[in-house]
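Batch job 17 of 40 flagged for manual review because the log was empty.
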Amino acid sequence: MQMMNLFKRSAIGTALIAASMMAGTAAHAGVVTFDVAGISSNAGFGDASNETHFINLFEGARITAISWNVNLSTFSSSWLSEIGVDLSDGSANGFSLFAGIGEDASGSGSFSGSADLIALGTDFYVGSSGKVRLEFFEYLDDVISAADGRWDRGSLTVTYVPEPSSFALAALALLGVGITTRRRKS
């Protein structure tokens, strides 16, 4: 009988430990790095000539921060401050980054930094596609029918938090296994 009670407690204990570990995992951020080398900066936001790329994550992931370390170049009269990238869930939720902000001149430059999207109030959740959409664009289209600039090299690093409800469901399932085991042994 003593052995049976010990088994019951250990099954429930194991389920609770596993559930708490999974719940703790939900709070940990993930990161994904995107290489921007050679991407053109063509026209205003939403123009069909802009390059778009996707980062595969999963539905419900919360985008919480972005950091960048990039080299940009402009052509003709375009400014470094006009080269941008918009990160979104594929709809209106997202954030636009202008890595060269404040550099109102043509030429080339290196830029790095980071932004806490939660603190800025611009964090967002990935939609049902499970993808973050990146559209590379120009704030002002100075060179009609040609690229205004280029992301020469570098990367963007996107920080996200996994969607917590899937972890909660897994934790509940483990807890249910522990309770079911306990009832069967009684």
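Reviewer: the log was empty due to a logging misconfiguration, but the result itself is present. Residues 21 and 70 are 37 Å apart (CA to CA). Unflagging and moving on to job 18.
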